[in-house]
């Protein structure tokens, strides 16, 4: 059902409009990107081409460009995925790349299918098995695992009764030394041949070769396999050692991610192969001319490493988040059990707590996306507004509480640095990095400048207001001299400007450099004092202004939500519909139900609070003993580490030529910092007094204003390339260098 392009000029204008529109739409066909990897397909309406004179095309080119912006239809696999895709384009909602439902197996690519295989499929000849990954397996696991099997085989031969298992271990020693291109199969032994005579072999037409006959002593009459003397000896002497070894291999290979096939190999060997009777295990080397084996294949591995395992997911959770989850448990146990720092120091605990925030941020993001996709608009909006900034707010509030208890103003300055770092990073680094990585694959990327303009306008409102002189009156400028226009801080920086204009400049010490009482003075540690005259200026003027701004900014955010989600939804030009392709009618099988997602969301938030408490508990030695400026620590580590999951989502969208969502990720975080997080911190100080005041240093003000102005300049034309992204990234690194060499803030 393709929407029609309205024709306001009659039949005579239709062919000209359609022809030129078709060419312009072909040029911007990549606005929303290829969502094939998401299981969705992008369909753009096309108008049949028609002939037109060049003069008419030139005359009406601008008008036709406006008319070709029609709704983009994104087809999803089911209604839940359709809701998730729709939420990605809504202002104020978390942008989530991964699926929240299970994708149909037939819709997946062959590469992805291979990732989830059980290593029991025999394929045709795929070339040589001597690869870098297989050699790496030999060096890391193969040689010592094979040697261990030889030692266990010797022990089993010594027991005499365990000789069948000794022979099995000898065969498995050769297999695990180089398992590639070999197959382990479970065979059925006829009852008449279950006990073989010494030196007699058995032939099987099904397998096309002799079945190895391993000597097996008779079991007691009426007993099964598990009560045989050989089995008891195996379970007591051989099996436990090999299970521990395979467990070590499995954990190590799983953590390395690219070696997950080795983890599957070890897990299947310890759970299936080693528990079978020896006479039912057949180990063979596949030949190129051999017909495929019939019967049950237990193990058949060709490659030890696969670089595509970064896409692997367990119950919808990415493998990186799964591997980092034990880190959270280690951090909590080590942090609260070893309080006196007997086992590790504060630096290690702070690093672990900070790294633990990354997987917790991922789980919170996936839980929010799952709940929003399975709920109506109102519930999704409430969940996103409540938990969208929970990661950052948890850390900030914990740091402010600790600083208030210790009477240390340094924590408040670090929180301000982290807020500024998040703002600058999401405005410059996140979109810049996405432009660079996406521009490597796509020569030029386009995005919806109208939807991006909403976030940019709100961000400009909260950071930089209207153009003005930006100087206070009465500073002694020559008559008639007008300063150059510059952005005057508004929104969150309005109290800072107010303090610069009306505050009293106080300096620590001043020296006369000319030995003349009327000459120049060199002053150090200068700041604007707002507590002059018993704090009259602050409590009567600055503090009411701070509270006023903290109320107006969330109100502006709500107006932006109402504007984009209710009255002007057409600016996104997105229409989501279910897929009706033949053979693709699938019901939604969600990874996390709403209740499960809610429980995970609450548990992740609780763990996030604990990790934030540990991070703030052990950051004090780093702030006091480090030679690096506290500004730099705040704007880099504390600001960007919690945003790493969002950065990964933005990069994945950019690689799919969907730069609109990549830009919106950074813009939405920056808007939430200014319009939600900072007002919440200010309102929190009403109920719990802290040292946090909405007065930022000059460095924070200038860095934020310059970043927002540069972002608006880059985004105004709706297209970009890797060069513009490089400019943003380079400016971000220049600002980091400024923070690195800046002196520590006062109070630290």
Automatic annotation (TrEMBL):
Chief location of this protein within or outside the cell = membrane
Presence of the UniProt keyword Transferase in the record: no
Biological process GO terms, please? intracellular calcium ion homeostasis
Q: Which InterPro entries match?
A: CaH_exchang (IPR004713), NaCa_Exmemb (IPR004837), NCX_ion-bd_dom_sf (IPR044880), YccF (IPR005185)
| Bilayer-spanning residue ranges | 135-158, 232-262, 317-337, 343-365, 377-398, 418-440, 452-471, 545-565, 597-616, 628-648, 669-688, 694-715, 722-742
The protein's location, in the record's own words, is: Endomembrane system
Annotated Inner membrane component domain residues: 132-182
Q: Which UniProt keywords apply?
A: Antiport, Calcium, Calcium transport, Ion transport, Membrane, Phosphoprotein, Transmembrane, Transmembrane helix, Transport
Q: Which residues form the signal peptide?
A: none
**Residues of the Sodium/calcium exchanger membrane region domain:** 348-462, 597-739
Offer a single GO CC term for the protein: vacuolar membrane
A single Gene Ontology MF term assigned here is: calcium:proton antiporter activity
Superkingdom of the source species: Eukaryota
Membrane topology term reads: Multi-pass membrane protein
Q: What is this protein called?
A: VNX1 protein
Question: Whose protein is this, by species?
Answer: Promerops cafer (Cape sugarbird)
Q: Which gene encodes it?
A: Vnx1
């Amino acid at each position: 059902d393709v929407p029609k392009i309205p024709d306001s000029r009659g039949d005579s204008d239709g062919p000209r409009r359609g022809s030129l529109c078709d060419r312009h739409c072909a040029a911007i066909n990549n606005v929303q990107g290829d969502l094939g990897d998401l299981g969705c397909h992008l369909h753009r309406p096309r108008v049949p081409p028609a002939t037109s004179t060049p003069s008419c095309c030139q005359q009406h080119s601008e008008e036709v460009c406006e008319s070709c912006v029609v709704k983009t239809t994104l087809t999803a696999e089911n209604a839940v995925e359709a809701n998730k895709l729709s939420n990605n384009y809504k202002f104020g909602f978390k942008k989530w790349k991964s699926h929240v439902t299970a994708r149909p197996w037939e819709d997946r690519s062959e590469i992805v299918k291979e990732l989830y295989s059980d290593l029991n499929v025999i394929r045709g000849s795929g070339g040589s098995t001597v690869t870098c990954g297989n050699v790496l397996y030999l060096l890391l696991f193969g040689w010592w695992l094979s040697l261990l099997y030889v030692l266990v085989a010797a022990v089993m031969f010594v027991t005499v009764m365990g000789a069948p298992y000794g022979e099995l271990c000898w065969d498995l020693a050769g297999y695990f030394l180089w398992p590639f291109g070999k197959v382990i199969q479970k065979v059925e032994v006829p009852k008449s041949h279950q006990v073989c005579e010494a030196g007699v072999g058995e032939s099987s037409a099904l397998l096309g070769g002799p079945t190895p006959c391993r000597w097996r002593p008779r079991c007691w009459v009426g007993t099964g396999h598990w009560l045989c003397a050989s089995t008891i000896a195996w379970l007591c002497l051989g099996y436990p050692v090999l299970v521990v070894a395979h467990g070590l291999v499995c954990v190590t290979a799983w953590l390395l991610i690219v070696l997950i096939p080795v983890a599957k190999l070890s897990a299947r060997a310890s759970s299936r192969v080693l528990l079978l009777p020896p006479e039912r295990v057949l180990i063979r080397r596949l030949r190129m001319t051999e017909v495929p084996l019939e019967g049950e294949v237990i193990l058949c591995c060709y490659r030890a490493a696969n670089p595509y395992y970064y896409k692997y997911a367990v119950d919808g959770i990415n493998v990186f988040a799964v591997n980092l989850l034990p880190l959270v448990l280690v951090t909590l146990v080590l942090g609260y059990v070893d309080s006196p720092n007997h086992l590790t120091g504060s630096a290690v605990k702070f690093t672990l707590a900070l790294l633990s925030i990354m997987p917790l941020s991922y789980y919170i993001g996936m839980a929010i996306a799952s709940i929003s996709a399975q709920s109506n608009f109102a519930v999704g909006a409430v969940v996103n507004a409540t938990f969208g900034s929970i990661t950052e707010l948890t850390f900030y509030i914990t740091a402010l509480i600790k600083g208030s208890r210790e009477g240390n103003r340094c924590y408040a300055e670090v929180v301000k640095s982290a807020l500024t770092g998040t703002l600058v990073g999401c405005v410059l680094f996140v979109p810049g990095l996405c432009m660079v990585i996406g521009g490597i694959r796509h020569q030029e990327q386009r995005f919806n400048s109208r939807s991006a303009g909403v976030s940019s306008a709100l961000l400009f409102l909260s950071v930089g207001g209207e153009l003005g002189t930006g100087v206070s009156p009465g500073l002694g400028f020559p008559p008639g001299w007008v300063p150059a226009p510059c952005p005057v801080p508004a929104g969150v920086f309005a109290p800072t400007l107010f303090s610069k204009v009306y505050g009293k400049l106080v300096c620590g010490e001043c020296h006369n450099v000319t030995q003349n009482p009327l000459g120049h003075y060199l002053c150090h540690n200068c700041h604007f004092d707002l507590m002059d005259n018993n704090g009259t200026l602050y409590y009567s003027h600055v503090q009411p202004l701070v509270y006023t701004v903290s109320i107006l900014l969330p109100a502006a955010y709500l107006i932006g939500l109402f504007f984009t989600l209710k009255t002007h939804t057409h600016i996104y030009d997105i229409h989501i519909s279910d897929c009706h392709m033949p053979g693709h009618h699938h019901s939604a099988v969600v990874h996390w139900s709403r209740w499960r997602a809610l429980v995970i969301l609450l548990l992740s938030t609780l763990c996030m609070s604990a990790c934030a408490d540990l991070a703030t508990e052990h950051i004090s030695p780093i702030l006091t003993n480090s030679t690096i400026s506290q500004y730099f620590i705040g704007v880099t580590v504390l600001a960007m580490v919690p945003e790493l999951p969002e950065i990964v989502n933005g990069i994945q969208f950019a690689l799919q030529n969907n730069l609109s969502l990549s830009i919106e990720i950074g813009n939405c975080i920056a808007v939430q910092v200014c319009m939600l997080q900072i007002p919440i911190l200010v309102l929190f100080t009403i109920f719990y007094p802290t040292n946090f005041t909405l007065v930022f240093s000059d460095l924070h003000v200038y860095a934020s204003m310059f970043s927002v102005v540069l972002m608006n300049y880059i985004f105004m034309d709706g297209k970009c390339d890797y060069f513009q992204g490089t400019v943003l990234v380079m400016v971000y690194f220049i600002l980091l260098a400024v923070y690195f060499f800046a002196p520590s803030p006062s109070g630290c």
